[in-house]
Amino acid sequence: MKALIHICCANCIIHPLKVLRNEGWEVMGFFYNPNIHPYQEYQRRLEAVQRYAKQATIEVIYRDEYNLEEFLRGVAFREDERCRFCYHLRLEATAQVARHGKFDAFTSTLLYSKHQNHELITATGETVGKEHGVSFLYRDFRNGWKEGIEESKTLGLYRQQYCGCIYSEKERYLRKS
Questions:
Q1: DSSP 70-126
Q2: 176 pLDDT band (50/70/90 cuts)?
Q3: Confidence at 59, pLDDT banded by 50, 70, 90
Q4: Binning pLDDT at 50, 70 and 90, where does residue 162 land?
Q5: What is the rounded CA–CA span in Å between residue 115 and residue 72?
Q6: CA-CA-CA-CA dihedral for 114, 89, 86, 149, to nearest 10
Q7: CB neighbour class for 113 (10 Å; exposed up to 12, middle 13-18, buried from 19)
Q8: What fold does the segment set 2-174 form as a domain?
Q9: HEC states along 15-56?
Q10: CB of 2 within 8 A of CB of 107?
Q11: How far apart are CA 91 and CA 142, in angstroms?
Q12: Would the pLDDT of 112 be above 60?
């Protein structure tokens, strides 16, 4: 069984990769994150994923496109629904690659985070999976939250401080002011 996992960052792939491999899945990664802002943040996350992929011996497909304008156009005047748009954008791209690559299923490291909306991710994944003829593989990876954090620190991986988009960056840092 082959699974394609959307990777948002290196920290978030650690635990899900272990879980899926332990379940017997052959796992390949897919990095596509046009929501990340600013560009330097995007580069740091991309480089961390590339570094971790070598360490963990996981093959990753990189859709290295910084399409910030597309993301911003998609959420303009609907900022409260930005996560819905963002999940759809990335999961649909993952489902398309999974279908073309003849994967049995696809999933996302977004399911590792305690800060993400699992119900919305699952509903979105199932919808785009049906549209593209590939199964969405739901796993609640949050039980490995602390383990993933500790391992990422041990490995010296770049650890971001917010989800990725300009809005989450504002929320993260404005609260501290």
A1: HHHHHHTT-GGGHHHHHHHHHHHHHHHHHHHTT-SEEEEGGGG-TTS-HHHHHHHHH
A2: low
A3: very high
A4: confident
A5: 21
A6: 30
A7: buried
A8: Rossmann fold (3.40.50)
A9: HHHHHHHHCCCEEEEEECCCCCCCHHHHHHHHHHHHHHHHHH
A10: no
A11: 19
A12: yes
Average pLDDT in the 144-164 region?
92
State which amino acid sits at residue 2: K
Q: How far apart are the first and last CA of the chain?
A: 48
* Residue 58 vs residues 14, 86, 122, 136: alpha-carbon distances, Å: 11, 25, 24, 20
pLDDT tens per residue across span 3-41: 999 999 999 999 999 999 999 999 999 999 999 999 999
Helix, strand or coil, per DSSP, at residue 137: coil
Element (H, E) at 62: strand 60-62
**To which residue do tokens 């954008």 refer?**
89
